[in-house]
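Researcher: We're teaching a course module on how sequence relates to structure. For the next exercise, students receive a sequence and then see the predicted structure as tokens, so they can try to spot secondary structure elements on their own. Here is the exercise chain.
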Amino acid sequence: MTLGLCGSPVPDTPFYNVRLAEDEDTIFATIDFFGQPHHAMFVKVIQEEDSGWKAARDPYDRLEDIYAMYDAALVPIEIPGLEGHWMLAIHPWGD
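Model: And here is the predicted structure for the students to work with:
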């Protein structure tokens, strides 16, 4: 699967309006839950020597925003068709 950018849906996923941010390793998308649109943000991460994760290229500190949204340990995911690991945050529009 390749990432469907420029607003197109991504095959085999519920994400749409997918776009890659310029000059950073962040993907923005939309996903619907219970008929309501939600923001989805993926930030590419790399594993540090102490087993923690840091952002690969994150000039706007979006990974810190993800950590601030969740009071739990986060586990990165792999996205078919893309290299590396990604942290995902989903929240309702308007938040």
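Model: If you want an answer key for the exercise: Confidence is low (pLDDT under 50) at residues 4-8. Residues 44 and 86 are 4 Å apart (CA to CA).
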